[in-house]
Write a structure and sequence with these properties.
The structure is a single chain. The chain has 10 helices and 12 strands. By secondary structure, it is α/β, with parallel strands linked by helices. Strands 4-3-5-12-6 form a 5-stranded mixed beta sheet, sandwiched between helices. A 3-stranded antiparallel beta sheet has the order 10-7-11.
Length: 306
Protein backbone atom coordinates (compact mmCIF):
# COMPACT_ATOMS: atom_id res chain seq x y z
CA UNK A 1 0.00 0.00 0.00
CA UNK A 2 1.33 3.43 -0.96
CA UNK A 3 0.35 6.99 -0.19
CA UNK A 4 -0.42 7.52 -3.88
CA UNK A 5 -2.87 4.63 -3.84
CA UNK A 6 -4.68 6.13 -0.89
CA UNK A 7 -4.93 9.46 -2.71
CA UNK A 8 -6.44 7.62 -5.67
CA UNK A 9 -9.12 6.04 -3.47
CA UNK A 10 -9.99 9.43 -1.98
CA UNK A 11 -10.27 10.96 -5.45
CA UNK A 12 -12.64 8.19 -6.60
CA UNK A 13 -14.92 8.99 -3.66
CA UNK A 14 -14.70 12.76 -4.26
CA UNK A 15 -15.43 12.37 -7.96
CA UNK A 16 -18.27 9.89 -7.58
CA UNK A 17 -17.13 7.69 -10.46
CA UNK A 18 -14.07 5.79 -11.65
CA UNK A 19 -14.03 7.51 -15.04
CA UNK A 20 -14.21 11.05 -13.61
CA UNK A 21 -11.50 10.25 -11.05
CA UNK A 22 -9.24 8.91 -13.79
CA UNK A 23 -9.64 12.16 -15.73
CA UNK A 24 -8.77 14.28 -12.69
CA UNK A 25 -5.78 12.07 -11.89
CA UNK A 26 -4.56 12.05 -15.54
CA UNK A 27 -4.35 8.27 -15.66
CA UNK A 28 -6.32 5.69 -17.63
CA UNK A 29 -9.44 4.15 -16.13
CA UNK A 30 -8.00 0.59 -16.42
CA UNK A 31 -4.93 1.72 -14.47
CA UNK A 32 -7.11 3.20 -11.74
CA UNK A 33 -9.23 0.05 -11.61
CA UNK A 34 -6.05 -1.98 -11.16
CA UNK A 35 -5.04 0.21 -8.21
CA UNK A 36 -8.38 -0.53 -6.54
CA UNK A 37 -8.11 -4.25 -7.23
CA UNK A 38 -4.57 -4.36 -5.84
CA UNK A 39 -5.60 -2.55 -2.65
CA UNK A 40 -8.59 -4.85 -2.27
CA UNK A 41 -6.32 -7.87 -2.71
CA UNK A 42 -3.77 -6.58 -0.17
CA UNK A 43 -6.36 -5.54 2.41
CA UNK A 44 -8.64 -8.51 1.95
CA UNK A 45 -11.76 -6.34 1.74
CA UNK A 46 -14.03 -4.99 -0.97
CA UNK A 47 -13.63 -1.22 -1.10
CA UNK A 48 -16.29 -0.36 -3.67
CA UNK A 49 -19.61 -1.75 -4.78
CA UNK A 50 -20.33 -1.40 -8.49
CA UNK A 51 -23.78 -0.03 -9.41
CA UNK A 52 -25.51 1.29 -12.52
CA UNK A 53 -24.73 4.82 -11.33
CA UNK A 54 -21.03 4.15 -10.75
CA UNK A 55 -19.19 3.01 -7.64
CA UNK A 56 -20.10 3.47 -3.98
CA UNK A 57 -18.12 2.61 -0.89
CA UNK A 58 -18.81 -0.67 0.86
CA UNK A 59 -19.14 -0.77 4.65
CA UNK A 60 -15.49 -1.84 4.92
CA UNK A 61 -14.56 0.78 2.34
CA UNK A 62 -16.13 3.52 4.45
CA UNK A 63 -13.96 2.58 7.42
CA UNK A 64 -10.91 2.30 5.16
CA UNK A 65 -11.56 5.78 3.73
CA UNK A 66 -11.58 7.29 7.21
CA UNK A 67 -8.10 5.97 7.91
CA UNK A 68 -6.90 6.88 4.41
CA UNK A 69 -7.98 10.51 4.79
CA UNK A 70 -6.17 10.80 8.11
CA UNK A 71 -2.95 9.33 6.67
CA UNK A 72 -3.01 11.57 3.59
CA UNK A 73 -3.76 14.71 5.62
CA UNK A 74 -0.93 13.96 8.05
CA UNK A 75 1.49 13.27 5.19
CA UNK A 76 0.61 16.57 3.52
CA UNK A 77 1.11 18.47 6.76
CA UNK A 78 4.47 16.76 7.24
CA UNK A 79 5.60 17.66 3.71
CA UNK A 80 4.46 21.25 4.11
CA UNK A 81 6.19 21.63 7.48
CA UNK A 82 9.55 19.98 6.87
CA UNK A 83 10.21 19.52 3.17
CA UNK A 84 9.43 22.97 1.80
CA UNK A 85 6.91 21.52 -0.59
CA UNK A 86 4.40 23.58 -2.53
CA UNK A 87 1.18 24.55 -0.70
CA UNK A 88 -1.21 21.71 -0.02
CA UNK A 89 -3.91 21.23 -2.65
CA UNK A 90 -6.85 21.17 -0.25
CA UNK A 91 -10.30 19.78 -1.03
CA UNK A 92 -13.59 20.02 0.82
CA UNK A 93 -17.25 19.56 -0.10
CA UNK A 94 -20.58 20.26 1.59
CA UNK A 95 -24.22 19.95 0.51
CA UNK A 96 -26.86 22.25 1.94
CA UNK A 97 -30.36 23.52 1.68
CA UNK A 98 -30.56 27.12 0.47
CA UNK A 99 -29.22 29.01 3.49
CA UNK A 100 -27.21 32.21 3.18
CA UNK A 101 -25.41 31.50 6.47
CA UNK A 102 -24.09 28.24 4.99
CA UNK A 103 -22.61 30.25 2.11
CA UNK A 104 -21.18 32.89 4.46
CA UNK A 105 -19.43 30.20 6.48
CA UNK A 106 -18.08 28.67 3.26
CA UNK A 107 -16.65 32.02 2.18
CA UNK A 108 -15.00 32.51 5.58
CA UNK A 109 -13.53 29.01 5.44
CA UNK A 110 -11.89 29.56 2.06
CA UNK A 111 -10.48 32.92 3.13
CA UNK A 112 -8.82 31.25 6.12
CA UNK A 113 -7.80 27.88 4.74
CA UNK A 114 -7.69 28.16 0.96
CA UNK A 115 -4.13 27.73 -0.29
CA UNK A 116 -2.79 28.65 -3.70
CA UNK A 117 -4.42 25.45 -4.95
CA UNK A 118 -7.71 24.03 -3.73
CA UNK A 119 -10.90 22.23 -4.75
CA UNK A 120 -13.87 23.39 -2.67
CA UNK A 121 -17.40 22.32 -3.53
CA UNK A 122 -20.60 23.94 -2.25
CA UNK A 123 -23.81 22.24 -3.42
CA UNK A 124 -27.05 24.09 -2.70
CA UNK A 125 -29.33 21.24 -3.57
CA UNK A 126 -32.46 19.23 -2.81
CA UNK A 127 -33.07 17.66 0.58
CA UNK A 128 -32.94 14.04 -0.59
CA UNK A 129 -29.74 14.70 -2.54
CA UNK A 130 -28.08 16.16 0.57
CA UNK A 131 -28.69 12.86 2.31
CA UNK A 132 -27.39 10.91 -0.69
CA UNK A 133 -24.29 13.12 -0.98
CA UNK A 134 -23.26 12.54 2.62
CA UNK A 135 -24.17 8.86 2.49
CA UNK A 136 -21.93 8.34 -0.58
CA UNK A 137 -19.18 10.68 0.73
CA UNK A 138 -19.64 13.07 -2.17
CA UNK A 139 -19.93 15.67 0.59
CA UNK A 140 -18.42 15.52 4.05
CA UNK A 141 -21.22 17.57 5.64
CA UNK A 142 -24.88 18.18 4.85
CA UNK A 143 -26.96 21.05 6.23
CA UNK A 144 -30.75 20.78 6.58
CA UNK A 145 -33.53 21.22 9.12
CA UNK A 146 -35.91 19.16 11.22
CA UNK A 147 -39.37 20.09 12.47
CA UNK A 148 -42.12 18.29 14.33
CA UNK A 149 -43.69 17.56 10.93
CA UNK A 150 -40.73 15.92 9.17
CA UNK A 151 -38.79 14.65 12.20
CA UNK A 152 -39.86 11.00 12.17
CA UNK A 153 -39.35 10.55 8.44
CA UNK A 154 -35.98 12.30 8.37
CA UNK A 155 -34.60 10.56 11.46
CA UNK A 156 -35.60 7.21 9.94
CA UNK A 157 -33.71 8.13 6.75
CA UNK A 158 -30.65 9.18 8.75
CA UNK A 159 -30.65 5.85 10.57
CA UNK A 160 -31.08 3.82 7.38
CA UNK A 161 -28.19 5.65 5.73
CA UNK A 162 -25.79 5.58 8.71
CA UNK A 163 -25.96 9.34 9.23
CA UNK A 164 -26.03 11.38 12.41
CA UNK A 165 -27.83 14.71 12.82
CA UNK A 166 -26.17 17.39 14.94
CA UNK A 167 -28.42 20.37 15.81
CA UNK A 168 -26.99 23.88 15.42
CA UNK A 169 -29.87 26.18 16.41
CA UNK A 170 -33.64 26.37 16.65
CA UNK A 171 -35.56 29.25 15.09
CA UNK A 172 -39.10 30.50 14.92
CA UNK A 173 -40.30 30.67 11.30
CA UNK A 174 -39.92 33.95 9.41
CA UNK A 175 -41.02 35.07 5.99
CA UNK A 176 -38.69 36.71 3.48
CA UNK A 177 -40.29 39.50 1.47
CA UNK A 178 -39.22 42.54 -0.53
CA UNK A 179 -38.66 45.65 1.58
CA UNK A 180 -41.30 47.29 -0.66
CA UNK A 181 -43.92 44.67 0.19
CA UNK A 182 -46.57 46.09 2.60
CA UNK A 183 -46.00 43.04 4.84
CA UNK A 184 -42.42 44.14 5.49
CA UNK A 185 -43.72 46.87 7.82
CA UNK A 186 -45.52 44.44 10.10
CA UNK A 187 -44.12 43.35 13.45
CA UNK A 188 -45.60 39.86 12.96
CA UNK A 189 -47.33 38.16 10.07
CA UNK A 190 -50.18 35.63 10.23
CA UNK A 191 -50.92 33.01 7.57
CA UNK A 192 -54.11 34.88 6.66
CA UNK A 193 -52.00 37.94 5.78
CA UNK A 194 -50.26 35.93 3.07
CA UNK A 195 -53.27 34.64 1.13
CA UNK A 196 -53.06 37.10 -1.76
CA UNK A 197 -49.29 36.92 -2.24
CA UNK A 198 -47.36 34.41 -4.41
CA UNK A 199 -45.68 31.68 -2.38
CA UNK A 200 -42.18 30.67 -3.49
CA UNK A 201 -40.55 27.36 -2.62
CA UNK A 202 -37.60 25.24 -3.76
CA UNK A 203 -38.34 22.29 -6.01
CA UNK A 204 -37.40 18.82 -4.79
CA UNK A 205 -37.35 16.87 -8.04
CA UNK A 206 -38.37 13.22 -8.04
CA UNK A 207 -38.54 13.13 -4.25
CA UNK A 208 -41.12 15.91 -4.05
CA UNK A 209 -42.54 14.87 -0.69
CA UNK A 210 -43.95 17.35 1.80
CA UNK A 211 -41.41 15.89 4.24
CA UNK A 212 -38.51 17.00 2.02
CA UNK A 213 -39.76 20.55 1.57
CA UNK A 214 -37.25 23.22 2.60
CA UNK A 215 -40.11 25.35 3.87
CA UNK A 216 -42.17 24.42 6.92
CA UNK A 217 -45.97 24.44 6.73
CA UNK A 218 -45.61 22.83 3.31
CA UNK A 219 -49.09 21.25 3.48
CA UNK A 220 -50.90 24.60 3.85
CA UNK A 221 -53.07 25.40 0.82
CA UNK A 222 -51.98 28.45 -1.19
CA UNK A 223 -53.71 30.00 -4.20
CA UNK A 224 -50.51 31.20 -5.88
CA UNK A 225 -47.46 28.90 -5.98
CA UNK A 226 -44.12 29.32 -7.71
CA UNK A 227 -41.44 26.63 -7.53
CA UNK A 228 -37.80 27.51 -8.27
CA UNK A 229 -34.47 25.72 -8.19
CA UNK A 230 -32.00 28.36 -7.00
CA UNK A 231 -31.81 31.08 -4.37
CA UNK A 232 -30.99 33.97 -6.71
CA UNK A 233 -34.12 33.33 -8.78
CA UNK A 234 -36.24 33.06 -5.66
CA UNK A 235 -34.99 36.39 -4.34
CA UNK A 236 -35.55 38.07 -7.71
CA UNK A 237 -39.14 36.83 -7.71
CA UNK A 238 -39.68 37.97 -4.14
CA UNK A 239 -38.87 41.47 -5.35
CA UNK A 240 -40.43 41.36 -8.81
CA UNK A 241 -43.73 39.70 -7.84
CA UNK A 242 -44.07 40.72 -4.19
CA UNK A 243 -43.89 37.08 -3.26
CA UNK A 244 -42.78 35.45 -0.04
CA UNK A 245 -41.03 32.35 1.25
CA UNK A 246 -40.56 30.85 4.71
CA UNK A 247 -37.19 30.30 6.36
CA UNK A 248 -35.18 30.73 9.57
CA UNK A 249 -34.97 34.52 9.58
CA UNK A 250 -31.22 34.68 8.94
CA UNK A 251 -30.44 36.63 5.79
CA UNK A 252 -27.14 38.06 4.60
CA UNK A 253 -27.17 41.66 3.40
CA UNK A 254 -23.53 41.19 2.39
CA UNK A 255 -24.38 38.41 -0.05
CA UNK A 256 -27.99 39.19 -0.94
CA UNK A 257 -28.23 42.96 -0.65
CA UNK A 258 -30.75 44.91 1.41
CA UNK A 259 -33.87 44.49 -0.74
CA UNK A 260 -35.05 41.38 1.14
CA UNK A 261 -36.22 41.60 4.75
CA UNK A 262 -37.22 39.03 7.34
CA UNK A 263 -40.46 39.24 9.37
CA UNK A 264 -41.55 36.78 12.11
CA UNK A 265 -44.42 34.46 11.21
CA UNK A 266 -47.09 33.54 13.76
CA UNK A 267 -46.92 29.74 13.80
CA UNK A 268 -46.53 26.99 16.38
CA UNK A 269 -43.87 25.18 14.33
CA UNK A 270 -40.13 25.49 15.03
CA UNK A 271 -37.16 24.97 12.71
CA UNK A 272 -34.12 23.11 14.01
CA UNK A 273 -31.21 23.51 11.61
CA UNK A 274 -28.30 21.12 11.91
CA UNK A 275 -25.63 19.20 10.05
CA UNK A 276 -25.43 15.56 9.09
CA UNK A 277 -22.30 13.46 8.73
CA UNK A 278 -21.64 9.79 8.05
CA UNK A 279 -21.48 8.09 11.44
CA UNK A 280 -18.38 6.08 10.47
CA UNK A 281 -16.38 9.15 9.47
CA UNK A 282 -14.50 11.63 11.63
CA UNK A 283 -14.64 15.26 10.55
CA UNK A 284 -11.58 16.49 8.71
CA UNK A 285 -9.72 19.60 9.84
CA UNK A 286 -11.66 21.62 7.26
CA UNK A 287 -14.92 20.01 8.33
CA UNK A 288 -14.37 21.03 11.94
CA UNK A 289 -13.33 24.52 10.87
CA UNK A 290 -16.45 24.90 8.73
CA UNK A 291 -18.72 23.95 11.63
CA UNK A 292 -16.99 26.57 13.79
CA UNK A 293 -17.55 29.21 11.09
CA UNK A 294 -21.22 28.22 10.98
CA UNK A 295 -21.56 28.56 14.74
CA UNK A 296 -19.87 31.96 14.68
CA UNK A 297 -22.24 33.33 12.03
CA UNK A 298 -25.30 31.88 13.73
CA UNK A 299 -24.27 33.43 17.06
CA UNK A 300 -23.70 36.80 15.38
CA UNK A 301 -27.32 36.64 14.18
CA UNK A 302 -28.60 36.31 17.74
CA UNK A 303 -29.20 32.56 17.97
CA UNK A 304 -27.92 30.21 20.65
CA UNK A 305 -25.92 27.19 19.56
CA UNK A 306 -27.41 23.92 20.76
Amino acid sequence: MTLQQLKYIIEIVNSGSMSEAAKRLYISQPSLSNVVKELERESGITLFMRTNKGVVLSVEGTEFLGYARQIVEQAELLESRYFNSKPIHTSFSISTQHYSFAVNAFVALIKKYGNEEYDFNLRETRTYEIIEDVKSHRSEIGILYLSSFNNKVMVKLFKENNLTFNPLFTANPHIFVSKHNPLSKKEFIALDDLKEYPYLSFEQGTYNSFYFSEEILSTVYRKKNIVVSDRATLFNLLIGLNGYTISTGIISAELNGTDIVSVPLKADELITVGWIVHKDMSLSKLGMAYIEELKSIITENGFEIE
